[in-house]
């Protein structure tokens, strides 16, 4: 079966991703100087586009980077409207190829040179639950809350975790304060009972999925030690790509995944948020 036909838009020009060209020089590539967002399309409806672009503008403002929001929105609409790979204009499907269709990821990047780069990507496939390994990490204060292209540390943390046999990293400070995994938010049910997650003031990203869970579930935020998570009765991740995903082990210590009433509550709450906006879920 052929690889999916990925599509890329650069400054509004849509091409197959293999033919996309980014003019250089651009410090977005040379120095990771830029911002990005990853969104999810449900049945052709991009979820929380306005909120993602609000966050992108806030990130760009910290970096003194100009965002042409209306053009980004127009680029996104044009890209999402493209027929899926293998799909004829009339809707007939070429079954010899997989497709990036109405359920996919939309990545939006704005570089220091002002380039608007948007890509359609297939949804990643995740296991039903994951294991985590703690990795020591010190957030960069001047980039707190910024979703920048400087993600090398996050990706290295994931590689370190995988080398230890885990599926993903869990970033903690040198003082053992819980932060987040490299590309998601951590929630857990504390030994005292409440559902918890780390306060954004600790240096974690203000995740859109995190917001949806907090809006619909009773969640306590704060600065918590890793020992609170290790003693929890439920742990799960939340992100655009994962939605809600249980965690079954941290540093080799098993975490209960069944029964998981608070995890299920969060999953239902997020599905309702998607259905309200996209008519899906």
How would you describe this protein?
- This protein has 281 residues and is an alpha+beta fold.
- The chain has seven helices and 14 strands.
- The strands form two sheets. Strands 7, 8, 9, 10, 11, 12, 13 and 14 form an eight-stranded mixed sheet that branches.
- Helix 5 crosses helix 7.
- The two termini are 28 Å apart.
Condensed summary:
This protein has 281 residues and is an alpha+beta fold.
Category by helix and strand content: alpha+beta
Annotation, overall tally of beta strands = 14
Mean pLDDT: 91
Distance between the termini: 28 Å
Helix fraction by DSSP (H/I, runs of at least 4): 25-40%
Strand content: 25-35%
Q: How many alpha or pi helices?
A: 7
Provide the gyration radius in Å.
19 Å
Question: Could you spell the SSE succession in H and E letters?
Answer: EEHEEHHEEEHEEEHEHEEEH
Largest sheet: 8 strands, mixed
């Amino acid at each position: 079966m052929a690889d999916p036909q990925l599509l890329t838009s650069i400054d509004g020009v849509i091409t197959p991703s293999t033919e996309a060209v980014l003019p250089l020089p651009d410090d977005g590539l040379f120095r990771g100087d830029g911002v990005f967002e990853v969104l999810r399309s449900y049945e052709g409806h991009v979820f929380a586009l306005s909120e993602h672009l609000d966050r992108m503008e806030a990130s760009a403002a910290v970096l003194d980077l100009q965002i042409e929001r209306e053009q980004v929105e127009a680029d996104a609409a044009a890209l999402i409207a493209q027929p899926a790979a293998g799909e004829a204009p009339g809707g007939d499907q070429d079954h010899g190829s997989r497709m990036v269709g109405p359920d996919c990821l939309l990545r939006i990047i704005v570089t220091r040179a002002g380039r608007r780069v948007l890509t359609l990507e297939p949804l990643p496939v995740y296991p039903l639950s994951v294991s985590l390994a703690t990795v020591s990490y010190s957030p960069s204060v001047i980039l707190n809350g910024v979703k920048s292209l400087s993600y090398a540390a996050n990706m290295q943390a994931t590689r370190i975790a995988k080398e230890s046999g885990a599926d993903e990293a869990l970033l903690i400070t040198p003082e053992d304060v819980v932060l987040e995994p490299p590309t998601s938010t951590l929630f857990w049910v504390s030994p005292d009972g409440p559902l918890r997650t780390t306060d954004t003031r600790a240096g974690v990203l203000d995740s859109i999925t995190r917001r949806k869970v907090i809006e619909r579930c009773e969640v306590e935020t704060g600065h918590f030690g890793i020992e609170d998570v290790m003693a929890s009765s439920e742990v799960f991740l939340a992100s655009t790509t994962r939605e809600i995903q249980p965690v079954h082990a941290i540093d080799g210590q098993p975490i209960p995944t069944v029964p998981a009433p608070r995890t299920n509550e969060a999953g239902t709450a997020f599905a309702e948020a998607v259905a309200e906006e996209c008519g899906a879920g």
